[in-house]
Amino acid sequence: MTTATPRHSARLCRLDLWLNPVFDEIIGATPGITLSVLPATGDDARTLAGLKTAHAYHVSAAKDELPRQWFVNAELIAQCPDLVCVSSGGAGYDTIDVAACTAAGIAVVNQAGGNAESVAEHTYALLLAVQRRIVESHNRLRRDTGFSREDLMGHEIHGSVIGLVGIGKIGTCVARIAQGFGLRVIAHDPLLEAATIRSRGAEPVGLDELLAQSDIVSLHCPLDASTRGLIGAKAFAAMKPGAVFVSTARGGIHDEDALHDALRNGHLRGAGLDVWEQEPPERSAPLLALDNVVATFHTAGVTHEARRSVARSSATQLAAMLRGERPPQLVNPEVWPLAAKRIATLT
Q1: For 135-261, where are the E strands, in sequence order?
Q2: Can you give the residue ranges of the D-isomer specific 2-hydroxyacid dehydrogenase NAD-binding domain (predicted)?
Q3: What is the set of active-site residues?
Q4: What domains, with CATH codes, occur in the chain?
Q5: What is the pLDDT of residues 112-132, one digit of tens each?
Q6: End-to-end alpha carbon distance in the chain
C-alpha cells in the first residue's frame, strides 16, 4: 500500500557523523517521520536506546570511521525489532550484513551512482598522477635543485588499453571518460551480459584476458566474498610488464603486500590507490614509501557535489520506503514483499 506519508509516525535514526545538511532538510520536510541524531561515541546507552525503537537507520559506509557496535549486524538487529529499512551512506555497504537484514525482513539500500562522477574523475586523477609523475615532480621542485626535466619523464595514456574490473555506474563513467583520452576499454563483470557491457562502452573479456591485455587495470567492483583477495600475487604477475594498477573500489580486493612486491621488482610501473585494508593506512605502510605510488585517503567520492548527492539519495529512498514505496537502489530486492508488509503495519 502506498500513501502520501507514512501511516504512523516513523522513527528514523542516524549518528552524528558528518553528513551533508540536505539529508536532514529532506527528512525534516517529510511529514510523518521523526529524525533522531544519536552520538556515535560517548553515550552508547543513549544511542542503543534510540536504535532499539527505530524503524529506519541511515548508517555510514565508512568501515573505519563507524564504531563497530553500530554496524548493522545480527547482534544489533536482534536488539532492534522495529527496524524495517537501512540505508548505507554510500555506494558500498561494508558496515551492513545484508544477509542478516534479509533474514530479519529489513530492506537495505545503497546510493550507487550518487558519487559515480566524482569517483570516475578521481580514477583519472590517480592514473595521470602516476603516468606523468606529478607527485614526484612536485616534491622535487620543493626540495631539490640541479635536476632536468628528463629526470621526470613520464608516459602518455593516449592509445593505451584500460581494463575495468567491474562496470557498474562508476565503471560506466570511467569508460565514457576513456573515450576522450583515446583509450581502448575492455571490461570484466561476471554479473552482466556481454551486450550490457558493450552498451556501457567496453568490450567484454574474461579476467585473465583483461590482465594480459591491459596497460592500465582499474578496479570498480564491490567488496564481497567473491572479490576479496581477487587481485593477488598471481593476478599481478599476469599483468603486462610496465602496466599501471589503480583502485578506487574497496580495500581488501587487492593484496597490498603482493602489489608492493610487483612494484618493487619493477614488473608494474606504478599504482594509484584510494582504498586500503586499513583506512587510513599506517604512515609506515610499505606502499607509501614508493615513489611510483600515488595515494589518497578514500577520498574519490568525497567531493561537495558527491556528498550532497549521496545524502539526498539516502534521505529520498528512506522517505520512499517509509511511505511503502519500493526504492530504486535495493541491495536485497528479494526482501521487499516482506519489508513492505512490515512497513504497512508500523505503530
Answers
A1: 161-165, 184-188, 203-204, 216-219, 243-247
A2: 125-300
A3: 250, 279, 298
A4: 10-110+304-346 (3.40.50.720), 115-295 (3.40.50.720)
A5: 888 999 999 999 999 999 999
A6: 15
